[in-house]
């Protein structure tokens, strides 16, 4: 099965999951927040999720409550690059042409990507080694190719599959957080 069909299949799965028990989403958030990766991170890079993705606004608000800083990417469709900006309030976001909330550049501070302690990477489907199928833009793979950061993804356990096609430009995630487990992808790749 090619990436296009896997992406469609994964999106349909996410839509079904989104309409089910939201307790799983809370458990995913709790597993991430309980980790040392989250607790030791001061500056967290995170995309504001759009339905049917696992919501990230509760994580953003929890980070602020814990005294952490949040930065959100602004995507540049012309070269498919991303630049992160610190936000201190959700009012500093506006919808992009794709409907994803992004920082309002004129009222937010750009962040040096090397300063990000933890990057929460979105995706549709993942394997145990941390390789993923994203939403098709390639923004995160391009960004991570130039920025070696500690990365995690928050996913439902049903988003894990060994059907993923790995390509040369794919950058794996360090850890996956589900409603029932934490997967150290670096260890999985060493096996």
Can you characterise this structure?
- With 191 residues, this protein is α/β, with parallel strands linked by helices.
- It is built from 6 helices and 12 strands.
- The chain has an 8-stranded mixed β-sheet. A two-stranded antiparallel ribbon has the order 4-5. Strands 8-9 form a two-stranded antiparallel sheet.
- It starts with a helix and ends with a helix.
Uncertain runs with pLDDT below 50, 5 residues or more?
none
What structural class results from the helix and strand content? alpha/beta
User: Helicity, in percent?
Assistant: 25-40%
Strand content: 15-25%
Sequence of secondary-structure elements? HHHEHEEEEEEEEHEEEH
- Strand arrangement, major sheet: 6-3-2-1-7-10-11-12
How large, in whole angstroms, is the Cα Rg?
16 Å
Gross morphology:
globular
How would you classify the quaternary structure?
single chain
Q: What is the tally of beta strands?
A: 12
Ends: how far apart?
A: 25 Å
Structure described in brief:
The protein is α/β, with parallel strands linked by helices.
Annotation keywords:
single chain, 191 residues, alpha/beta, 8-stranded mixed β-sheet, two-stranded antiparallel sheet, 29% helix, globular
């Amino acid at each position: 099965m090619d990436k296009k069909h896997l992406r469609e299949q994964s999106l349909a799965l996410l839509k079904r999951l989104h309409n089910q028990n939201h307790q799983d989403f809370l458990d995913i958030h709790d597993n991430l927040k309980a980790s040392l990766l989250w607790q030791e991170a001061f500056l967290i890079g995170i995309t504001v999720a759009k339905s049917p993705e696992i919501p990230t606004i509760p994580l953003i608000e929890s980070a602020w409550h814990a005294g952490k800083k949040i930065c959100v990417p602004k995507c540049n469709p012309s070269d498919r690059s991303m630049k992160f900006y610190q936000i201190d309030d959700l009012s500093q976001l506006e919808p992009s042409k794709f409907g994803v909330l992004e920082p309002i550049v004129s009222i937010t501070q750009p962040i040096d990507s090397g300063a990000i302690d933890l990057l929460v990477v979105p995706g549709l489907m993942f394997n145990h080694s941390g390789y993923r199928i994203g939403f098709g833009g390639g923004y995160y793979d391009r960004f991570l190719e130039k920025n070696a950061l500690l990365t995690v993804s928050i996913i439902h356990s049903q988003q894990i599959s060994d059907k993923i096609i790995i390509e040369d430009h794919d950058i794996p995630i360090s850890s996956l957080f589900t409603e029932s487990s934490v997967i150290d992808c670096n260890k999985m790749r060493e096996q």
